[in-house]
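Thread: "does anyone have the structure for this chain?"

Original post by V.I.:
We have the sequence but no experimental structure in hand. Need at least a predicted one for the grant figures.
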Amino acid sequence: LTSLSQNTKHLILIGDHKQLRPKVESYHLQVQSGRGYNLNVSLFERLVLSGTPHSTLAVQHRMHPDISSLIKHTYPNLEDHPSVSSRPAVKGVQSRVVFVDHNQPELQESKSS
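Reply from O.Q.:
Generated one for you, tokens below.
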């Protein structure tokens, strides 16, 4: 935001202040350290916490309620649009939400030189 000119009259940003924070390897640069660097706080979280006016999505149109129920603790006021309840199930899949547990390590991509 510091690169915006003084002539900027209106700015619209689209994002989510409740999604995953940026990953910062150094603990002393994280908000948890209490040192004030807070580099693992996203731009949107900073803006919302500082009192910048914002709007939050009230009705979602993408996820079936079986899936959106997984995020209700993060977005307690988010409602499902009636259209999402009538979406057909994925053929060949027993449930709309499937968790797969495995004990095989993921393959590392080889670095090209």
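V.I.: this helps a lot. Helices lie at 43-49, 65-68.
O.Q.: and The radius of gyration is 20 Å.
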